[in-house]
Specification:
There is one protein chain. This protein has 379 residues and is of the alpha+beta class. It folds into three domains: 127 residues, no CATH class; 129 residues; 67 residues, no CATH class. It is built from ten helices and twelve strands. The strands form four sheets. Strands 3-4-5-1-6-7 form a six-stranded antiparallel β-sheet, with helices on one face. Strands 2-8 form a two-stranded parallel ribbon. The longest helix is centred in the middle third of the chain and has 26 residues. The chain is globular, with a radius of gyration of 25 Å. The protein starts with 11 loop residues before the first strand and ends with a strand.
Length: 379
Amino acid sequence: MRDQSNQTGGSKEFVVVMRGPSAVMFKPDERMIIQGLASAIGTVDIVYSTRHLSRKADVTMPGHLWIDIRGDAGTLDEALVPFANAGLSMLPVLVLSANAAIGEPEIELGFDNTAGITERDYFQSYIPPERDIPHTARSIDVSATVELLRAIDAHPDSERLLRGANQYRIALQSWGLGREAFSLAHLWMAVEAITKAKVRAECEAHKVTDQADLAEKFGVELKQLDGVVWRDLLLQGDDEVYSKARQASDGFEHGFLNYGEISKLAQDVRHRMAGYVRAAILEICRLEEAVFDRLMSDPFNKPLGHWPIVKYLRGRLVGTGEGLASSGNEYPFMKWKPKIKTAKWEGGKLNIEIEDNLTAEIAQGIRFQPGSMEAWQAD
């Protein structure tokens, strides 16, 4: 704590704590620390970690992403929003590194942490507690993420790279069935955000001074340069991805395609485009080869949304009668009560054992004949 016991004014030390849903997960003994990050009112220190919730013996469930931001300000009200914005500003890097979605963390706590004083301002916002429903999640490589952050920070086009990474973050927030059009639109915005950074990198690589010289080197007119960079470099010469993604993006933005048409285009190319966009940003960052290879290897090479594990029960209703539902119910259904038996970290991975208890709510004379039970990770 900062000692303010002998001061009557000036800055004090404040703590702002945020949390929210995330498929990016830190192991129980891991955290990522960023010191001296600029905010709108001064520098702050930030710690990113995952809340791990002990439910009972052998069951410790990962909860929300936890963001702890500390720094100096005049009042708590002055600190809340700038500190929170600073904490949010690094989320695109975490998403890009882990290739996994992060939701929208919210401010939960804010308080005066100054040493030596007897009265402190305090703020709390109600955020619902995490539910014990297994969600998709992926452990982040902390050391590789720190190297990525350093590389982006040192890059002359760091702002463009962060904008591109942020569009990628928004795309992964919608990484689910039925939302392909929205995620593809933001992948295209990511391409547009990093285009100038890629052009400058190509100018350096080909030892030319400006875009006009680069266009001449590529044998195209200057007005065609961005399109060539999009298709041949950022999207690795994949004509199908380029044409369908551009058509879907333009149709989405300008409204000349219906949603079904846009969705079909997006379904065809979204996964490939995400791979190209992420690889392009990482390449432009000039990462060391070993770090680049780690971030491009399994499991980080597959985009991961943040969704509950989907379960399906299949079978048959057997028997005769006037109705299928039990008395007082409209429909036949199974009362489903999942129970987490164990949740343990083993070999760097979280293994969860779940017991599903099913009770048939069906009419007399009708019985349920089980077929299969399936668990799926939403894609």
